[in-house]
Amino acid sequence: MYHHYQKSLSYKIFTMFNYTFLTVAALLCILPLIHILAVSFSGSAAATANLVGLWPIDFTLDAYEKTIGNENFLRSLWNSFLRVVLGTVISMAVMLCAAYPLSKSDKAFRGRKMYMWFFVFTMLFHGGLVPTYMVVTKLGLTDTIWALILPSAVSSFNLILLVNFFRTSVPKSLEEAALMDGANHFTIFWKIYLPISVPAIATISLFTMVFHWNSWFDGMIYMSDVKHYPLSTFLQTIIVQQDFTKMSVDAETLQNLSERTVKAAQIFIAALPMLIVYPFVQKFFVKGIVLGAEKE
Amino acid sequence: MQPTVDLKRQTTAVGTRKQWKVRGTWQLHTMLLPALVIVFIFQYIPMFGLVMAFQDYEPWLGFLHSPWVGLEHFKTMFEYEDARQVIWNTLVISTLKIIFNLAVPLAFALLLNEIYVMKFKRTVQTIVYLPHFLSWVILGGILIDMLSPEGGIVNRILTAVFGIEPIFFLGDNEWFRTVVVVTDVWKECGFNTIVFLAALTSINPSLYEAAIVDGANRWQQTIYITLPSMLPIVIVVGTLSLGNILNAGFDQILNLYNPLVYKTGDIIDTYVYRVGLLNGDFSYATAVGLFKSIISFILVVTGYRLAYKYANYKIF
How far away is chain B from the Cα of A248, in angstroms, using its nearest Cα? Predict the structure, then answer.
């Protein structure tokens, strides 16, 4: 694509400035991670002496060995993994099942509008932190993985995205034909709706996974014991709050955990899955935005 | 009766379908049930729990037997220096965030739109999009290390290049809000840019062609075509963010602040958390939270109304 205004001198100067500016902006977004990565591969002494910039000094895998050797870290990694898998599967199953009836016309499913408002209202008004905390504790979910999965299982926003997707991309004629053949709703949902919606399901699943991997606050308030902490909560406790009182660790492990290089290694390990996943999300996301903006 | 697609018997087929629709409704209800139950338990029951705000709630007495105190806690809230400061901090931080999270991504999208080398454009977009996916725990860990006055890389650069004394960014009331706003804009810029870029690509190209025929240069095209065409989406994003005016970023602040900067950085959500869950002052914290929920509710509804009125935006 070439426009004739690109010939003018002022536009050429602007373009040079623009490329420079955007390059700097992109670097600002990625250099902090490169710095942390460099620290994590550096020798402990060099890191403590503030010598590390963007390249490791006294290259060593020491920090990663200490991290992998730490039981608490590994256990919280496992908790996070479990949470992501279970949480995403349950959340998607419940939301997809709900999106199907909600995507019907008002005629085919009486009460659709009322149900829709039931979900939308939760986007507008919240009970807030304290009452929600009490409901979860009163149900006896504390110290179980369900406290991390069930309260956020239905995201009204994602549910509406799915409903809109079903409404706009499943051809009505297919459904009509299946109805003629005497198929019931479960069959239509399973055989027609789900296969057609694979891209939307993939997008929202990825978002749900990212949400579960990154969530830390619920782990902190609902888990009384460090052994139930997901990785994000574990890192929040030892890196951000620098609170080691909850861990029953010996002096040597404690020494290791407070080392700058070990902290950097843990941060990088926690960021790694996101680095792998996010380019895929991005590909789908533009579609998602369009899907969210579809008008009836 | 077997339904059939034989044209002569179409009436029968349609009739069968009608009956079938009525019969199938229970299946639709069954499919909705799990989501209804979960939302009811975890979203609606806590709303009933809001009665705590009007009681002196004692855990061993429960909602039914705790003494009622009316608007006592709300009065306390407005008399407390703390609470007033917290509401003010929230408004300042979130207003700055709303402005910059609208202006910066918009400018960024316009600049990206002038890049005709697709590979470069896509690479920049992908990289800038990255911080959105990192949690505030990870970013908090990175920022605490980088902004540290004892050899954090930012202070090292400032000292080496400008000869400035190290600044304690996260422990200084002068700096804290700036850091919060800048890092939030940095994190969300790529994500917010996507919406504007999508809007830019949907502008009708014949408008530009006509302008070029009229001898408009690129700057004039931007002023007279691009910006007016972007107005609806800017209005939508702007009005919808109104509802967030009392959300100044709980996750972010909880991971960055410390007692040194409560004066400028403590916001409603972090305050509710400390007072309610850490000090166990359930009723008072619920009252503060309820105050926030009600204001937010009014703002969100207003925001949606405005977005619908001026830009014809509907969520469903």
Answer: 22
The DSSP string of A173-226 is: HHHHHHHHTT--HHHHIIIIIHHHTHHHHHHHHHHHHHHHHH--HHHHHH--SG
pLDDT of amino acid B307: 84
Q: What share of chain A is helix, strand, coil (3-state, %, to 5)?
A: 75, 0, 25
List CB contacts of B119: < 8 A, sequence separation 6 or more. Answer: none
Residue B115: other Cβ atoms inside 10 A:
17
Phi, psi torsion values for B248, nearest 5 degrees:
-95, 10
State phi, psi for A258 to the nearest 5 degrees: -90, 0
Query: Rounded to whole angstroms, how far apart are CA atoms A241 and A220?
Result: 12
Reading the block at residue A83, the tokens are 């949470």
Q: How far apart are CA A265 and CA A41, in angstroms?
A: 8
Q: Give the angle A9-A14-A20 at the CA atoms, nearest 5°.
A: 135
pTM for this prediction: 0.87
Nearest-by-CA chain A residue for B33: A98
State the DSSP code for B172: -
Contact at 8 Å (CB) between A108 and A225? no
Q: What are the tokens at A225? A: 């014991």
Distance from CA of B248 to the nearest CA of A (A): 15
Q: What integer pLDDT is reported at residue B91 of this predicted model?
A: 94
Query: For the stretch B287-298, what's the b/e string if a residue is b when 16 or more beta carbons lie within 10 angstroms of its beta carbon?
Result: bbbbbbbeebee
Helix (H) / strand (E) element for A74: namely: helix A71-102
Other Cβ atoms within 10 Å of B312 Cβ, number: 10
Q: How far is A195 from chain B (nearest CA, A)?
A: 18
Helix ranges (DSSP H) in A236-259: 251-257
What are the C-alpha distances in Å from A23 to residues A31, B58, B123, B131?
Answer: 12, 58, 10, 16
Name chain B contacts of A274, Cβ cutoff 8 Å.
133-134
Q: Any idea of the CA torsion for B309, B247, B252, B289, to the nearest 10 degrees? A: -150
- Measure Cα distances from A264 to A210, B68, B131, B141 in Å: 21, 51, 17, 8
Task: Count the Cβ atoms, other than its own, within 10 Å of residue A221.
Answer: 18
Residues of B whose CB is below 8 A from A28: 186
Whether the predicted pLDDT of B11 surpasses 80:
no
* pLDDT higher than threshold 80 for residue B276: yes
Question: Between the CA of residue B199 and those of A161, A207, B195, B209, B233, what are the distances in Å?
Answer: 19, 22, 6, 18, 7
The answer to whether A129 faces chain B, any CB pair under 8 Å, is yes
A 31-70: CB under 8 A from B: 32-33, 35-36, 39, 49-50, 53
Q: Find the mean pLDDT for residues B191-210.
A: 88
Taking the C-alpha atoms of residue A193 and residue A197, their distance in angstroms, rounded to an integer, is 6
SS3 readout for A8-37: CHHHHHHHHHHHHHHHHHHHHHHHHHHHHH
Per-residue pLDDT reduced to its tens digit, A227-266: 999 999 999 998 888 777 777 666 777 777 768 889 999 9
How far is residue B140's CA from residue B169's CA, in Å, rounded to a whole number?
Answer: 13
A196-214 per-position pLDDT tens digit: 888 889 889 988 999 999 9
